[in-house]
Write a structure and sequence with these properties.
By secondary structure, this protein is an alpha/beta fold. It is built from 21 helices and 16 strands. The strands form two sheets. It has an eight-stranded mixed beta sheet. The chain has an eight-stranded parallel β-barrel with strand order 9-10-11-12-13-14-15-16, surrounded by five helices. A hairpin with a 4-residue loop joins strand 7 and strand 8. It is globular and about 85 Å long. Bound molecules: phosphoenolpyruvate and magnesium ion. Phosphoenolpyruvate (PEP) binds next to strand 10 and helix 18.
Length: 537
């Protein structure tokens, strides 16, 4: 048994086998692609490349082995010409899926169908399909790397994971994340929390001591990775897991109840989401609404800006499923650790303080308008509000308002209906907090982003694990800015919520309520925990 320490991102317990993810194995590709014709062309080219590769391998095999062994390669070539295989991929491409994702999904689906027939002939065909699909994927992605193929739930171990890479992993097969690098406040950590996946970052394991398939436990309460646990540890972990599960279940009795203190003070408890998957958790844990929908993830899982219709359908679904409850949609907050290659963002010395979020949106007006049009069009399906990130000045709000007005005029001209939508800003820079009295005159609500507010106020990069001891979101300077923002917001008659991770800090709930904060928006898993804490005040 060997125990390694890490910093816990979520207090859960996971038991399972290790899967070591070496970066060169991680295949990055977009999941969606708008231009089906282009994707079909790429598929055709990749297929030609693989055919040539198989022919070459066949000739080589004939020189080095016997004829029967060499026959595998012409058999693989047959898969590439197989009508059922190809049409399955093409149908997916036609639905807007990228060639890579279509090949990957088709390979899995068909090989699973064949394998299920439990016949040795079909088992071999299942293996052929997987083999060909892998070759096609390598050809499509420039031969660079292998796909991560998770066949069973695992504890995934990696050096580091960017939010983009995390997005591309099949989360239903991940029991826990363990990384060597990484910071508790990064977006990857936030993502793990939102998906309720235990995770450790900054873990002190040594690669040479780990093997794929080793039994291990991740203890999120203690921040430990325990490899090859002995019998006693295993049963302790099992008990801990049961206890945590029971605790999670016990808060479920609070579903449908109010967030009210014993002396009758109320506060809204909302959920932060970044995808439809996380929306499920928000509904399961009875969030009073969505306080922060981080839309950048919709951009990061694609190879080009998501089209207006694609975005419209997603926003409509979130609004519809929240059934009239408030949904605060934050416009694109890309940049820093949240990246997508097609944005072609420059390399920067200080990306967190660089070209990101609203700064990019105000430069790329067409892209910005597309998102705003999609939100306005969806607004008739529920109770939508729009939130703008990284604001530092009044001028930015003036520009934003000009653009939203132009979008509404365009919709009017096209007779496209939209509802009244509140416009709010993130208070996540010290500048915004300090001039919150002025900004409050210009918007309908404030949402305090304590993650960035902490990093900018304390001059501590939230992604730098070395600086974690300085990253103190409870720092008096941060709390003063929160208080100031709430007071200024209320003086102007607008509501003020907190949507950074600090909103879930139960030690501060009382303070936030005393300050008069109107809403706390937290990772879905914390909604009921927070409700319990408020009700016991
Ligand atoms: C924040 O900065 O507090 C916030 C909620 O936004 P993000 O974590 O996405 O930067
Ligand atoms: Mg932020």
């Amino acid at each position: 048994m060997k125990i390694y320490s890490g910093k816990s991102v979520l207090e859960g317990i996971a038991l399972g086998k290790l899967y070591l993810l070496r970066k060169q194995e991680c295949l990055m590709y977009p999941l969606y692609a708008a231009d089906a014709q282009k994707e079909n062309m790429r598929l055709k080219e990749a297929s030609e490349t693989v055919k040539a590769e198989l022919e070459q391998l066949y000739r080589l095999a004939l020189l080095q082995t016997q004829q029967p062994q060499a026959e595998i390669f012409p058999a693989l070539k047959l898969v590439l010409d197989d009508e059922a295989y190809l049409s399955c991929i093409q149908r997916k491409i036609q639905k807007g899926i990228s060639a890579e994702a279509a090949v990957h999904e088709t390979g899995n689906e068909l090989s699973e169908q064949f394998a299920a027939l439990q016949d040795s002939y079909f088992a071999a065909r299942a293996a052929d399909i997987q083999d060909v699909s892998q070759r096609l994927l390598r050809a499509l992605t420039g031969n660079a790397v292998q796909a991560v193929e998770l066949t069973e739930p695992v504890i995934l171990v990696a050096d580091d994971l960017t939010p983009g890479e995390t997005l591309h992993l099949d989360k239903s097969k991940i029991l826990a994340f363990v990384t060597k690098k990484g910071a508790v406040n990064s977006h990857t950590s936030i993502l793990a929390r939102a998906l309720n996946i235990p995770a450790l970052v900054g873990t002190d394991f040594l690669w040479e001591e780990l093997r794929d398939g080793m039994t291990a436990a991740v203890d999120g309460t203690e921040g430990q990775l325990i490899v090859s646990p002995d019998e006693q540890t295993l049963s302790e972990m099992e008990q801990k897991r049961q206890a945590l599960w029971q605790e999670q279940e016990s808060v479920k009795e609070l579903v449908g109840k109010e967030n009210i203190t014993s002396d009758g003070r109320k506060i809204e408890v909302l959920a932060n989401i970044g995808s439809l998957k996380e929306l499920e958790n928000a509904l399961r844990f009875d969030a009073g609404g969505i306080g922060l929908f981080r839309t950048e993830f919709l951009y990061m899982e694609r190879e080009a800006y998501p089209a207006e219709q694609v975005q419209f359908e997603i926003y409509r679904e979130v609004l519809g499923r929240m059934n009239g409850k408030k949904v605060v949609i934050r416009t694109l907050d890309i940049g820093s650790d949240k990246r997508a290659s097609y944005f072609e963002l420059p390399e920067e010395e200080n990306p967190a303080m660089g070209y990101r979020a609203i700064r990019i949106c105000l430069d790329r007006e067409g892209m910005f308008k597309t998102q705003l049009r999609a939100i306005y069009r969806a607004s008739v399906y529920g109770n939508a509000a729009i939130l703008f990130p990284m604001i530092t000045s009044e001028e930015e709000i003036i520009k934003i308002r000009q653009i939203t007005e132009a979008v509404k005029q365009e919709l009017d001209m096209q007779n496209i209906p939209y509802a009244k939508v509140e416009l709010g800003i993130m208070i996540e820079t010290p500048a915004a907090a300090l001039i919150s009295d002025i900004l409050a005159q210009k918007v309908d609500f404030f949402s305090i982003g304590t993650n960035d507010l902490t990093q900018y106020t304390l001059a501590v990069d939230r992604l730098n694990p070395q600086l974690e001891k300085y990253y103190d979101a409870r720092h008096p300077a941060v709390l003063r800015m929160i208080r100031m923002t709430v007071e200024n917001g209320h003086k102007a008659g607008i509501s003020v919520g907190i949507c950074g991770e600090l909103a879930a800090d139960l030690k501060l709930t009382q303070t936030f309520m005393e300050m008069g904060v109107d809403s706390l928006s937290v990772s879905p898993l914390y909604v009921l925990k927070l409700r319990r804490s408020i009700r016991s005040m």
